[in-house]
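This part of the workshop introduces the protein records we will be handling. As an example, a complete record with its sequence and its structure tokens follows.
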Amino acid sequence: MDIHEGFCVRRTMDSGYIFSGWTGYWMEPGPNNPNAQVLQVETDNTQDAWLVRYSEEGEYLWGIAEERGVDYHYYSVVQLPDGGYVAGGCWTDNGYLVRYAPETGIEVSGPLSAVSLEVSPNPFSSTLSIALSLPEATEVCITAFDLNGRIVDTVENGFHQQGASTVEWVPSSSLSSGCYLLNLEAGDESATVNCVLIR
């Protein structure tokens, strides 16, 4: 019963990947997949909804096989602004939507980020004001992502002095209404906020 199907793979906010489909079990570790983990042995010829999370380099991070005793598939998955996930699919003949809480137990090395990032107004319709504060002068990159993890714009890329400063984001007219993530990279520090564009 080692039959698996994948339906969706998307980028995550940290440039990794989230994969959805259905499975009987995840293959055991071997030469071509040393990071694989045994997740779930298929029982009673059912199909279990399946989520698997990978790092940017393709390293296995975690996997979930949801066993309901009947055919259960995840056709799509998307990461939410808070870091959680929503997966959609079917359970026998019914549509099904499941929300997962943000990932926990992630080790953080060193002190928390000393940079800050705030946006206003939020929601916005044309111009977004982005206030940032830096503990020291450094190169700054602010990138806008959609909820699928795709880069939609580079808002700022340059040197900023220590302390508070403000930049503006005027999204392209081709960008549709929706929720977007702004990620600030400043030296070894980073911060992310979400914003809502309303056309």
Remarks:
- The CA atoms of residues 6 and 21 lie 4 Å apart.
